[in-house]
Amino acid sequence: MVVGVLFGVLAICLLLTVPIAVSLGIATIAAGFSLNAVTGNQMLTMLAQTTITASDNTSLLAMPFFMLCGSLMDRSGIAKRLIDVAEAIVGEATGGLGATTIVAAMLFAAISGSGPACVAALGLIPAMVRRGYSTEYAAATTASAGTIGPVIPPSIPMIVYAVSAGTSVTALFLGGVGPGILMGLIMIFYNFLISKKRGYKGTPRGGGFLWVL
User: Fold this and answer.
1) 3-state secondary structure the chain
2) What is the pLDDT of residue 206?
3) Is the pTM for the entire model greater than 0.70?
């Protein structure tokens, strides 16, 4: 009965083009009330207790602060300075702007904790196209670099998983450092190989240390 109410209400809401998140909420509430009719008031009591317990977690406060941090970086010019730092490090190498995108994404990931936030803050696709990169390669490089965001700590998905599964946030963060850096290095190496093949040059200005490539 409860399962039928759950999927039935969900199907009706979706047919009425109700947003998915709202549909799931309505279907869950309807299923809760139907189960409550069978078990008495126990279901609503347990639901209320679970909701309060799940929301009463200080680790979840990190997520809105990460979002606030990303907004502050974008509006204060810190994002542009991080890109300048990344370009100073690898910008002179073959395919320097592609490598700059990847390094900047790693730096953003260590601050914002969100993949989409990294991609949105970079905004280097037009610059890569102006430097002679193909639009497809520029978009693919930026999107791939954004995947580093949830891996390098701090990471919003790691916090959500830790709270849901009851595991240690610190342990997850420590476990993400090595894989995140390895992902970035492999992407930089792959970008170098593709850029060497397609003739994507760096931006020699005498400041970086990879100009010999």
Assistant:
1) CHHHHHHHHHHHHHHCCCCHHHHHHHHHHHHHHHHHHHHCCHHHHHHHHHHHHHHCCHHHHHHHHHHHHHHHHHHHCHHHHHHHHHHHHHCCCCCHHHHHHHHHHHHHHHHHCCHHHHHHHHCCHHHHHHCCCCHHHHHHHHHHHHCCCCCCCCCHHHHHHHHHHCCCHHHHHHHHHHHHHHHHHHHHHHHHHHHHHHCCCCCCCCCCCCCCC
2) 46
3) no
